[in-house]
DNA sequence: CGGTATATACCGATCATCGGAGCATTGCAA
DNA sequence: TTGCAATGCTCCGATGATCGGTATATACCG
């Protein structure tokens, strides 16, 4: 659980759920917004990830609604999931700091 | 080249090379240090990644030495590789900020 | 004499993600 | 009224970075 790095889609899905529960399609749109349009999740990626994250106990089904004959399944971040996301944020912070520090040390105008 | 997210090992390899050229085994040790002991690269991962990054033009062979009858192949980060790493750092910064913002909005004591 | 450190190479397995197709409903535009 | 986009979930094969392990070789330590 404190294991390896999360992949970008997984990280963004957890982030999308951090503030409030959302249903699949809502997560899809939110991830696109969070990533400033860079990441457009495939439906398969999203629902597969949601199943996996549920099995891991990081997200859970919050409730289900039917709106206009279409099912909406809402997911929420569990406390465990929030803890995992916080660990991930720490890891990313520390590693981006290391990368910046080293980039600054880089001798300018290296031979490409 | 401005594409998807880098995986953690790839990011750390580029970071290890950001300040100065290093040979494979040196990168292996450096990555472990940068990641505070969390990431111990498999030899296969490292050399495969180095080949791939060379093909992408992000790293290049700097020089080769023979020390104690053992080959040392030094790699350096190219300007293109440094630019890619900087983009990655920006991306990570923006996404960690988003995650932190949302975690702060999270209603405390949610049902686990 | 055996194990650990140094150093690189190669190989099959794993698994998250990609890229698509499929199904069903609503609403808008041609 | 036909067609296409948006909404919403499901399933499937392909891809590719990483993992885990093996191999090879030298040097040094106990």
Descriptive overview:
The structure is a homodimer of 112-residue chains. Chain A has 112 residues and is of the alpha+beta class. Chain A has one domain: Winged helix-like DNA-binding domain superfamily/Winged helix DNA-binding domain (Arc Repressor Mutant, subunit A). Chain A is 55% helix and 17% strand. Chain A contains 4 helices and 3 strands; from the N terminus they run αβααββα. The first copy, chain A, has helices at 8-18, 24-34, 43-55, 79-105, and strands at 22-23, 59-67, 70-77. A 3-stranded antiparallel sheet of chain A has the order 1-3-2. The mean pLDDT of chain A is 93. The structure holds a DNA duplex (30 and 30 nucleotides).
| CATH architecture group name of chain A | Orthogonal Bundle
The count of β-strands of chain A is 3
Poorly predicted spans of chain A: none
At the first level of CATH, the class of chain A is Mainly Alpha
User: How are the strands of the biggest sheet of chain A laid out side by side?
Assistant: 1-3-2
The N- to C-terminal Cα distance of chain A equals: 40 Å
As for the CATH topology of chain A, it is Arc Repressor Mutant, subunit A
Structural class of the helices, strands and pairings of chain A?
A: alpha+beta
Characterize the quaternary organization of these chains. homodimer
Helix coverage percent of residues of chain A?
55-70%
Order of helices and strands of chain A, N to C?
HEHHEEH
Biggest interface, chains and residue tallies: A-B, 41 and 41 residues
Count of helical stretches of chain A = 4
Radius of gyration of chain A: 17 Å
Instruction: Give the CATH superfamily of chain A.
Output: Winged helix-like DNA-binding domain superfamily/Winged helix DNA-binding domain
